[in-house]
Amino acid sequence: MFETKEEVFQEILEMEKPTCPHCNQPMNIWEVPPINVGDGLGWGTPYLFMCFNDECPLYTQGWDSMMDNYAQRASYRCINFPGTTQFELIPVFSPMGAKGQVIDDQVLAEEEALKQNIKKGFSILADCFVNHDGVTILKLLTDSSEPVRVRMKAAEMIGDIGELEAIEPIRNLKFGNVRLQEQVDAAVKKIHQRFFTRECPFCAEIIKSRAKICKHCGREVAGE
Questions:
Q1: How many of the other CB atoms lie within 10 Å of CB of 100?
Q2: Averaged over 150-162, what is the pLDDT?
Q3: Structural domains counted in the chain
Q4: Model confidence over 1-36: pLDDT tens digits?
Q5: Do both 22 and 76 map to the same domain?
Q6: What are the Cα distances from residue 12, in Å, to 3, 23, 79?
Q7: Which residue has the higher pLDDT, 97 or 70?
């Protein structure tokens, strides 16, 4: 399954920051720019770790190396692919090069707030599941301001304990996240299985799974 950018970032936040092999300083999280660098194929990840230590030998000596070998006013910074021991070099063409994508303290604070919201949402969902509170679970699922991970969990739970009445408000929403939409569709299917029901292919009203004639629109639904 493909991960969302948010999910990838959450995983990277929980990782221990690697240290630059050239200066032994902690590396920063770096958001890959939308314009591809290098061979044009992209990095394969929305975030990398990068060394922004201006005293790093790789960086300080890189200016002369690039000028001597390529006649370019540029240097190098070290990058690391998250979750691996793979370190590579990336050229920078000014002391500010690539710093526009550094994940700074403000962004980290925002992400920490997101983590707390996820933790809070999961706690509420746990209580709702124990108390069979499908109404609150549905509210969290349909609230676009809730973190995607909370809504994903809510979709899973609504499939387990949701009533038939939960199907209509879910069907009336379009979930922009593909994985969330898939989870919601699976939840609706699970609710129908639990109540031995389905939706009429003509009027979309809920009917018994074994029905041959829809009681709402009168259309024949046997085999549909």
A1: 9
A2: 94
A3: 2
A4: 456 777 788 788 778 889 999 999 999 888 887 655
A5: yes
A6: 12, 22, 14
A7: 70
